[in-house]
Amino acid sequence: MTVYAQLAEGVPYSRVVRKFSQRVADLGLPPSVRLEWGGEAEGSSKANTAILRMLPLAILLLLLFVLAEFNSFRSLGIVLATVPMAAIGIVPGFILSGQPFGFMSLLGVVSLLGIVVNNAIVLLDVVERNRREGRSIAESLRRAVVLRTRPILLTTLTTVAGLLPLAFSSSPLWPPLAWAIISGLIASTVLTLVVVPSLYACLFRERSSTVPLRFVEDPR
């Protein structure tokens, strides 16, 4: 038996599937009856599987690129520490907006992680550049935050402004993606400007500028 249905306007398929599954479970169908989903639910399941299959490769490439850029496991740890910051804003964003977590939400989370990691890399690059010029860690961090705060905030504001039409769209497809990026980006931007310098100050120490003395035997 094949059952076709059309979603009401503005209703996400995940909400319908969840409620329908509960109703079917209450019916107590015999074990010989098998239920398979089609349509958007089937396509979303395949897309989620494809993303999760490629996610380990993407993480490995991220680790290699960050190590090649900074040549430091401590810098790599600081960059990776910014990843959980995105989740701090994503969860309240979904709760307040009432959006379900599905394929488009997962796609928004993956896109958000790229933006958050990029902000951390840009900030650390300025810090390392200042240290190579002979400045102290405190001065390097201060100059990096001063120089990069405005570009990072402008990037966040323009991204949020560009996603607002999708967030308030009547289509059930785009709002989950938009709210995942908007809420996560706002929270992670503020935390990145605070946590990244703090972690750097804790993990790194001033480079020693002393030159070891060498004793030369007097020929006399």
Brief sketch in words of this structure:
Helices cover 73% and strands 0% of the residues.
Overview of this structure, please?
There is one protein chain. The chain is mostly helical and about 220 residues long. Helices cover about 75% and strands about 0% of the residues. The chain has seven helices and no strands. Helix 4 runs antiparallel to helix 5 (about 105-130) and helix 4 (about 85-95) packs antiparallel against helix 7 (about 175-205). The termini are far apart. The model is unreliable at about 210-215 (pLDDT under 50).
Please state the CA-atom Rg, rounded to the nearest Å: 25 Å
Total DSSP E strands: 0
Helix content: over 70%
The average pLDDT is 80
Low-confidence stretches: 209-213
Distance between the termini: 106 Å
Q: What would you call the quaternary organization?
A: single chain
Q: What's the overall geometry?
A: elongated
Structural class based on helices, strands and sheet pairing: mainly alpha
* Biggest sheet descriptor: none
What is the N-to-C succession of helices and strands?
HHHHHHH
Note the beta-strand portion: under 5%
- The number of helical runs is 7
Architecture blueprint of SSEs:
Layout: H1 13-27, H2 39-70, H3 73-81, H4 83-97, H5 103-132, H6 137-167, H7 175-203
Helix pairs in contact: 2-3, 2-5, 3-5, 3-7, 4-5, 4-7, 5-6, 5-7, 6-7
Task: Provide the descriptors you would attach to this structure in a database record.
220 residues, mainly alpha, 7 helices
